[in-house]
Amino acid sequence: MIEAVLFDMDGLMVDTEKLSTEALIHCAKEQNYEMSVDETLQVLGFTEAGIYEFWINYFKDTKVDGKKLTEDHYKYIENVLFTTGPDKKLFVEELLIYLKEHNYKVGVASSSGLHYIKNNLGKTGLEKYIDTIASGAEVENGKPAPDVFLLAAKRLGVKPENCLVLEDSKAGIKAAKSARATVYMVPDMFRPDKEVIEITDNIVENLGEVIEILKKIN
């Protein structure tokens, strides 16, 4: 029985994955490196520490400074997020309203830092629907480890197996399955590959479809 819904944030609730891709390509170009969109998608769902580690190792023994690239890309993102704020994803508020009206507990379990999560939820006006927040910065292991989902479920007082997780990244989907939660993929920048299709419980094109599924379940 689904008692709670846990949302990833970036690319799922707010349209920040495209911004991150834009930032990485821009900052790589400043170091005379032409980064592809596919390259940027390699860090989808990673924590901040994980992103630093990935790019430092990725550009090891090259002329690109992976640490500077990561720092510059975060500055680029912050310039947008902390001024105008991100755009809400399609049907996210409608789904949140439905969940609150039907007494589901609602959590956000994101790889982003708490300051990013609180800023994005505040700027978009979505914070009023959220019962708890769990950040990848609060746990020992980031996605694809289940830690952040287990923390969110614990804070809600709900068993992980009674949670529905909504995710857009492979790392997040693997984390949710490791937590023994039900997981639906809502694709954004990353389209489901064979592995994702095999392990996810459902793939929907937008959050509005989740409302219709929950209506049938109930």
Number of strands: 6
Task: State the CATH superfamily name of the largest domain.
Answer: HAD superfamily/HAD-like
Q: What is the class of the largest domain in the CATH system?
A: Alpha Beta
Total domain units: 2
Total helical elements? 10
CATH topology tier name of the largest domain:
Rossmann fold
Approximate shape: globular
CATH architecture of the largest domain: 3-Layer(aba) Sandwich
- DSSP strand content: 5-15%
- State the end-to-end CA separation: 10 Å
Structure description:
- By secondary structure, this protein is an alpha/beta fold.
- The chain folds into two domains: 4-14 and 88-215, HAD superfamily/HAD-like (Rossmann fold); 16-84.
- It has helices at 17-29, 37-40, 48-58, 66-81, 92-101, 114-124, 147-156, 170-178, 194-199, 207-217, and strands spanning 4-7, 105-110, 132-135, 163-167, 182-185, 202-203.
- The chain has a six-stranded parallel sheet with strand order 3-2-1-4-5-6, with helices on both faces.
- Helix 6 links the parallel strand 2 and strand 3 (132-135).
- It is globular, with a radius of gyration of 17 Å.
- 43% of the residues are buried.
- GO terms for molecular function: hydrolase activity.
- InterPro entries: HAD-like_sf (IPR036412), HAD-SF_hydro_IA (IPR006439), HAD_2 (IPR041492), HAD_sf (IPR023214), PGP-like_dom2 (IPR023198).
- Keywords: Hydrolase.
